[in-house]
């Protein structure tokens, strides 16, 4: 009987290791597993694999001034907003503190860019629910691998380059 009571607890710990508590999305560890699966599938089926790197600009400043709880709340609201703008087949994960990565299997760069544009217009880091003293914005970069694939690190880096340029031009959401 004690063995049966321990099994659900152990299962919960294993699942928790793959889920980010602030965003309720999979974490970077899960993203690596999902990426390997999708890259293998894209190679086998000869389809494209695109990736979006979504960054909450200004999250560090917000955390410094308003605290980690405010930043965690913004991350959670942003995650829900991102997820609601993606397809069911897409995998979205929290990659780091202010960065989310979405895997878009079967999409070429133009199709992924359309989703990125939709995210830029539709994702609001706080949904207007929280008055913020520190403005935050969303920036989205796109990378696409051919049927031969590329590494997760290479794709995230490729998607980060435009994000750096957008820091100056991103629409500020307050």
Summarize the structure.
With 174 residues, the protein is of the alpha+beta class. The chain contains six helices and four strands; from the N terminus they run H-H-E-H-H-E-E-H-E-H.
Provide an overview of this structure:
Helices cover 52% and strands 18% of the residues. The longest helix is centred in the N-terminal third of the chain and has 18 residues, at 28-45. With 174 residues, the protein is an alpha+beta fold. Strands 2-3-1-4 form a four-stranded antiparallel beta sheet. The chain starts with a helix and ends in a 5-residue tail after the last helix. Residues 1-12 and 165-174 have low confidence and may be disordered.
Please render the helix and strand layout as text.
Layout: H1 2-16, H2 28-45, E1 49-57, H3 59-66, H4 68-84, E2 91-96, E3 99-105, H5 109-122, E4 137-145, H6 152-169
Antiparallel strand pairs: 1-3, 1-4, 2-3
Helix pairs in contact: 3-4
Label this structure with key terms.
single chain, 174 residues, alpha+beta, 4 strands, 52% helix
Low-confidence stretches: 1-12, 165-174
Based on secondary structure, the structural category is alpha+beta
* Average pLDDT taken over every residue: 81
Rg over alpha carbons: 17 Å
> Please, how many helices?
6
Distance between the termini: 54 Å
Question: Can you tell me the overall shape?
Answer: globular
Secondary structure tally: strands = 4
Residue fraction in strands: 15-25%
Strand order of the largest sheet: 2-3-1-4
Q: Strand-and-helix sequence, N→C? A: HHEHHEEHEH
Characterize the biggest β-sheet: 4 strands, antiparallel
Percent helix, as a range, is 40-55%
């Amino acid at each position: 009987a004690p063995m049966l009571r321990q099994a659900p607890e152990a299962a919960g710990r294993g699942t928790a290791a793959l889920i980010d508590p602030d965003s309720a999305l999979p974490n970077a560890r899960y993203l690596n597993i999902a990426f390997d699966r999708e890259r293998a599938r894209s190679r086998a089926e000869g389809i494209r694999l695109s990736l979006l790197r979504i960054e909450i600009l200004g999250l560090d400043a917000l955390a410094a001034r308003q605290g980690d709880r405010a930043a965690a709340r913004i991350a959670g609201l942003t995650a829900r907003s991102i997820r609601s703008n993606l397809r069911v087949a897409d995998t979205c994960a929290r990659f780091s503190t202010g960065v989310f990565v979405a895997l878009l299997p079967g999409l070429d760069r133009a199709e992924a860019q359309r989703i990125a544009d939709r995210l830029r217009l539709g994702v609001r880091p706080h949904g207007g629910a929280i008055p913020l003293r520190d403005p935050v914005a969303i920036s989205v970069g796109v990378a696409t691998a051919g049927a031969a694939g590329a590494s997760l690190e290479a794709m995230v880096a490729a998607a980060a380059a435009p994000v750096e340029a957008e820091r100056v031009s991103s629409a500020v959401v307050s």
